[in-house]
Amino acid sequence: SLAKIRIAELFDIIVDYPASLPALEDLRHCLQGQPGLRSLLVASYIDQCSKRLLHPGANTVDIIFIYVSTIKTFTLLDSPGVLLDKVARPIRKYLRERGDTIRCIMTSLLNEADELSAELNTTAAEMQDDENDLFWEPTPVDASPDYMRRTRDLLDSLTSIYEHRDVFVKELQVLLADRLLATSGYEIEGELRNLELLKRRFKGAALMSSADVMVKDIIDSEDIDGQIQEKCTGIVHATILSRLYWPKQSLPNLNAVPGPVRDMLTKYTDAYGELKPNRTLRFLPNLGHVRVELQLEDREFDLLVTPGHASVIYAFSDVAERTVEQLMESLDLIESELRRALVFWTKQGILRELRPGVFSVVESVSQATEEVVVEDIALDAVEVPADDDMDMYWQFIVGMLTNVGALPLERIQSMLGMFAPSYDRPAEELGTFLAKKMREGAVQLKGGQYKLA
User: Fold this and answer.
1) Which stretches make up the Cullin family profile domain (predicted)?
2) Is the dihedral of CA 209, 212, 214, 216 positive or negative?
């Protein structure tokens, strides 16, 4: 019969929603007065989800999309929500067990151009209380013993997967911190809009006050930095965080920071102390970034890198040749972190490995020899990720640039850290990978932003 055909196709119908509305109408008419078909529909859809959706190979964002479409379609099929209550339980249980569900939901809410964000922020009117609803219907006979009418608000349906909403607000703190620290020039207008939206959606959440303080820190930092620059113009610009309101950060060892930079940080701290008596600063250089300008014999470089990478290349400013042991001792870096930096500078064509464990500056292109090939093999033996390993994240990047549009490197790096499972690559490696994609004609770089070619 038509009903059984539509039931067998239900998963595909929901994936194709709203283009599949005619098929849903067919199914809705078939279900009227047919309790047997209602039971068959529930059992069939749960089975289809189990086989095609609720498994480790499915992306969490895709599962959330299907869940949202399930809510919409089953609301059309059965307005009291009895069928939805039954088919949603396995999906809700699976999402609750996924470690990245909360992060995916909150990340989508923070990205205005995200497709899931558009879905979640389109709020349907909540169901009224029974006693005030002119179109009240009695609870259907096939309802579960613990059935309760649910709101049609999509965000509420997602956040109610967890017992307490505080878990979402805590995740918001972490994500907002990442996004605020990834911005350059104190430009946070977009984050302010997102925060105001989230305040409306998480009314009464006490921890939202922490987000307010974090945003205020960025705004105040711009003013304070401007006053400090008037007194001691320099190249250091700081974002000053209220420690108790930001996610906890470990204090790094400042020995890895080059001496001249440490002197500038000290001057900045002194100037801050004059503006804010009885207060002091403790720098977290590992959270910052450094613009490095290099002038070699036949070429120049202007790169935005991590402080660790900057420290490594600075170590070659007075000595053209260094060993790995010397660098580890002078910079107080662990070997894996040091190797990552050496791989980055080698791929930029600025360093080369003369012999195992010994690196030198490539002052001119003519100095580049076949030793570079040997060097790559030596570095890969320490399990430093290669470009090929970045290919696993390419589809995430394509999805970002498709849904959001052109993005700067810092935003792509931040979004990969939020969306991509186990992504822990430095921004420099991402930049190298995108440069390769540019050479292949897959992406373009215009005005400091990457977009699909």
Assistant:
1) 123-346
2) negative
Q: Note the pLDDT of residue 254.
A: 60
Q: How far apart are CA 257 and CA 249, in angstroms?
A: 18
Strand, helix or coil for residue 114 = coil
Domain borders along the chain are 2-163, 171-275, 289-384, 389-452
Top-confidence residue, 233 or 27: 27
Segment 194-221, tens digit of pLDDT = 777 777 767 655 557 888 888 999 999 9
Q: Report CA-CA distances (Å) from 206 to 105, 166, 202, 340.
A: 19, 8, 9, 41
Angle between the 166-182 and 208-231 helix axes, to the nearest 10 degrees?
20
Counting Cα atoms < 13 Å in the Cβ hemisphere of 191 gives 25
AA letter at 377: I
Domains 289-384 and 389-452 equal at CATH topology level: yes
Tell me the CATH architecture of domain 289-384: Orthogonal Bundle (1.10)
Q: Which fold has domain 389-452?
A: Arc Repressor Mutant, subunit A (1.10.10)
Q: What is the pLDDT of residues 159-190, one digit of tens each?
A: 788 887 778 878 888 888 888 887 767 888 87
Please tell me the pTM assigned to this model.
Answer: 0.63
Pick the closest to residue 419 from 392, 453, 446, 389 (CA basis): 392
Show the 3-state SS of 336-377: HHHHHHHHHHHHCCCEEEEECCEEEECCCHHHCCCHHHHHHH
Q: How long a stretch of residues is the chain?
A: 453
CA dist 445 → 7, 385, 401 (Å): 47, 24, 12
